């Protein structure tokens, strides 16, 4: 969406110039001749015994050409950072170490003596020194992998990007091109030379995790975020709180986390900061959610005044200023933790019966000449004002839009979930929208197979280009009623990857029905890549999400 | 079994002397008075909102006393190694760093200024400099955690052990005593002072993983081994090969791993060495298995001559010397990887029909005047000879014992699986035995609840003390027909922990039926500890193994 192609520097222009020259003049670099071609993955016949046909990438880059060379990669691959992005180079340097560990995991850690490797150096060029991670940050990158010939200046591996976050995406792509060859015991890049120019289709590519229905230790949240980066997802929507538990420390209201299940199932401010920082190092934003006025019963364990009464405990008491003081306090404390521009205010599934049945609230409604429906609107809008006062853009679940579209702050991002057709209505009224249709993108719906996830389309029903621009992207949701640290990752993966490609890759290249079988093979390859990285991704062909394989067999065909 | 209590050095004798003096003379160290007592976990009422009642250990140490003090632990805890075990101190030092990361995961990484912590130093005393890890290695240790009083020399944390592997067990116990307090944001030890003298009940406490029915990447195997160390299991039985796939590289017969599912689902020699080394650093032996003559169909993909015929492919062809040459070659190559004294030769579930129906094998049987039953015995014994020639102690599944007990090499370790009652028969004939009754200790039997695993008893039916000594221990088995990297860990945990306590802890302290409810709470606590360490252990109260929680709730009560 908002991503631009990186502006190449002179050296890179020269590299790419020679690269394209080589395509035009066969005699110049004969090895490239007849080999570079647009990879037509859905036409290639998959043979799992033939590595050279199998350089799969997930999600599919927007533009790429490849050849038919096989290049060796030096385990001592060196790293050179250049460009104006020096201030933020630590982000790329740390990522380089992570990816080096991934790429050379199964290989000898040192170069073999006497062996001259084709690829010995990785150049990363970053043009901007702004390392602020935000919605719409430039994630585009170019990646060139080509052999260094004696009489050619084409050489090494080059990633060029406008921001460090684009460089991170390029590193992920590079890591997927590098395959350990068990015969030669060497890391190889098949089908070189590669020239990839890539950028995301949508700027918001999210995954939510509900840490209220079950508590997830910080290490597990980090595992989820780490795995998101492998699929180039970029927003971790942290549904921290809900009616069942309030695990987060709020210094201004220190009794709130008494609503945690136990004294250990909690997140300190430092825990949350660490999660945000861990995510930023992987180019992933953290969008926090404080769901009001429903889904908030747990708040009252620390402050019972937030309940309409001790016997009628949801939604939050709309009649008291104290309620909004607490929301203000929570948001003020969270503002210091979560720098992301979007803040989720929930607003879904509000049953207002308690307001009507609790005498003092009912009286308040009468005094203010409000129905419960009016009071719901009043609550949501007042919460929006608090978020806006903290310079946050409010996100609300679609019920708020469905109930009072003309009253919502125009900055509001409408978060679809109930079904199809909401984003078209929201963007028609000028709102931005996030697509999470539960029929396809709720990961706890275990009966949704990978292809239903894959072929879901955030722009479905939106023809107008300017309206399409208002769809920020989409999000798969991991609700935790029956998921916990023991099974969330295999509920998330591989189906979240299907959505990740939908959100990253060109619609045309990934929408034709005849891509189905090759996409399936590519997704199976990615699922096995996840397991190699220690992520317990479930078999792709499962009839139900996260179910076990039905019998012995290869990872690549299950 | 073979573990002895560590021989304390003078300094430690002094420490322990003062500790016990304090118990006898209340005025000497009054804080210990009336507080140190043998912890009676099954009598304590569990309150999850009260950390001080909740210092749970798993598996239960053999002897321990505790008090009622709460001590703070310095995030900059220093580490001092002493004793004769200097040569092997790197094992403890690396473990100290691992455990420091675990203990201070949720805490500030640096000491708070102005705060004086009660526990600032960890002394580890190791008496032996022999770091060879073998069956029966001394895993005993003493652990003293007590406050440093101005006029007392009692101080710090002291772990004393005869071997580095005992010190590792002590570090695990210490890590379980350290609890992060979310209120104070400090790591605390409740119920101090602690004095623990601990050693395992059985010397063989195993977990097997079948990497043939599904391939497990090296990282996943490491995750399994790491988690085993948390439950003080000490033998990783690697069922590498089976009829479905042959993933291991065998330099002497380089076509064998053509029997892998794909060219990526393989283990190089270096991979296997890395697994052995990773396990050793955690005090875990790796027992490799080459299952013959059945369960070996995959061998013939590289060497079809190993099959009786191309249409009748199991068991291995008993009639050819080539078959035994290949076994010799495999074992010779594996001997360089696996230093553990025990080597598993399988021998189970052999259907000899192919031998009878393949003309050249049938002819060979007739020439040698053998029935197929004789040939099965001939094969097993010849394989045993090969293992013995490599100075390996052969382990065989119980079918070999059931079929020809008097012929087996007397060194043979009989591995029970089919049902109860085998170990009593085996030890009565002087064989050693490993207990893995499938009705209780096969983890792929998902209908076995935690308490059936827990109350299984390896010495069931064995009264004679000298015969009891022949039971090396037991093993829980993770077969992979319907398990793979996406779900093995939650199939293994928490039920493997139930077996781990049976194998480590005193029978008396863990066998009474009235321990049931407190044991359940302690196991739930351990399950949550595993999730905190990033291990996806399933809810304890699941009706079926590895099934999801049935609704929202705390980790500690599911």
Task: Looking at this protein, list some descriptive labels.
homodimer, 558 residues, alpha/beta, Chitobiase, domain 2, TIM Barrel, 2 domains, nine-stranded mixed β-sheet, eight-stranded parallel β-sheet, 18 helices, 17 strands, 32% helix, disordered N terminus
Task: Give a topology summary.
Two copies of one chain form a homodimer.
Chain A: H1 10-24, E1 37-38, E2 63-66, E3 69-82, H2 89-103, E4 119-126, E5 141-145, E6 157-161, H3 164-177, E7 178-181, E8 186-192, E9 194-198, E10 204-210, H4 218-230, E11 235-239, H5 269-280, E12 285-288, H6 321-335, E13 342-344, H7 353-357, H8 359-367, H9 372-389, E14 393-397, H10 398-403, E15 413-415, H11 422-428, E16 432-435, H12 438-441, H13 450-454, H14 465-468, E17 471-478, H15 488-492, H16 495-504, H17 507-511, H18 516-532
Parallel strand pairs in A: 3-4, 4-6, 10-11, 10-17, 11-12, 13-14, 14-15, 15-16, 16-17
Antiparallel strand pairs in A: 1-2, 2-9, 3-8, 5-6, 5-9, 7-8
């Amino acid at each position: 969406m908002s991503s631009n192609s990186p502006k190449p520097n002179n050296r890179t222009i020269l590299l790419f110039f020679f690269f394209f020259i080589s395509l035009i003049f066969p005699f110049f670099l004969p090895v490239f001749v007849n080999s570079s071609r647009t990879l037509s993955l859905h036409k290639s016949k998959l043979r799992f015994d033939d590595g050279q046909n199998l350089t799969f990438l997930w999600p599919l880059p927007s533009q790429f050409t490849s050849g038919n060379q096989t290049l060796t990669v030096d385990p001592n691959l060196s790293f050179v950072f250049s460009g104006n992005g020096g201030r933020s180079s630590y982000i790329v340097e740390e990522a380089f170490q992570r990816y080096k560990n991934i790429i050379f995991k199964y290989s000898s850690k040192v170069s073999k003596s006497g062996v001259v490797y084709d690829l010995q150096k990785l150049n990363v060029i970053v043009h901007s020194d702004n390392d602020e991670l935000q919605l719409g940050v430039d994630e585009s990158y170019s990646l060139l992998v080509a052999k260094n010939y004696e009489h050619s200046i084409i050489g090494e591996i080059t990633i060029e990007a406008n921001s460090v976050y684009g460089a991170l995406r390029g590193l992920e792509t590079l890591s997927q091109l590098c395959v350990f060859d068990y015969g030669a015991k060497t890391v190889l890049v098949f089908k070189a030379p590669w020239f990839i120019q890539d950028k995301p289709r949508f700027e918001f590519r999210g995954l939510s995790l509900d840490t209220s229905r079950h508590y997830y230790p910080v290490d597990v949240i980090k595992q989820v975020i780490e795995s998101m980066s492998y699929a180039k997802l970029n927003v971790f929507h942290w549904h921290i709180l809900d009616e069942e538990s309030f695990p987060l420390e709020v210094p201004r209201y220190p009794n709130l986390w008494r609503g945690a299940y136990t004294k250990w199932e909690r997140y300190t401010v430092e825990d949350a900061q660490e999660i945000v920082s861990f995510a930023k190092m992987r180019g992933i934003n953290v969008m926090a959610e404080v769901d009001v006025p429903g889904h908030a019963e747990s708040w009252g364990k620390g402050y019972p005044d937030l309940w309409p009464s001790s016997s009628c405990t949801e939604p939050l008491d709309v009649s008291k200023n104290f309620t909004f003081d607490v929301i203000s306090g929570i948001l003020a404390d969270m503002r210091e933790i979560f720098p992301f521009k979007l803040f989720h205010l929930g607003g879904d599934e509000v049953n207002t019966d308690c307001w009507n049945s609790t005498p003092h609230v009912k009286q308040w409604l009468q005094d203010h000449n409000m129905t419960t429906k009016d009071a719901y609107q009043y609550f949501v809008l007042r919460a929006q004002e608090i978020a806006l006062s903290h310079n946050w853009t409010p996100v609300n679940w679609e019920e708020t839009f469905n109930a009072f579209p003309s009253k919502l702050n125009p900055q509001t991002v409408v978060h679809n979930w109930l079904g199809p057709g909401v984003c078209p209505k929201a963007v028609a009224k000028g709102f931005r929208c996030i697509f999470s249709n539960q029929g396809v993108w709720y990961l706890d719906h275990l009966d949704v197979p990978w292809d239903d996830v894959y072929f879901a389309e955030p722009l479905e029903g939106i023809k107008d280009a300017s309206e399409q621009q208002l769809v920020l992207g989409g999000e798969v949701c991991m609700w935790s009623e029956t998921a916990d640290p023991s099974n969330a990752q295999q509920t998330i993966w591989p189906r979240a990857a299907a959505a990740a490609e939908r959100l990253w890759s060109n619609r045309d290249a990934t929408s034709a029905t005849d891509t189905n079988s090759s996409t399936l093979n590519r997704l199976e390859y990615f699922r096995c890549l996840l397991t190699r990285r220690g992520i317990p991704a479930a078999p792709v062909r499962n009839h139900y999400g996260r179910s076990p394989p039905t019998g012995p067999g290869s990872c690549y065909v299950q």
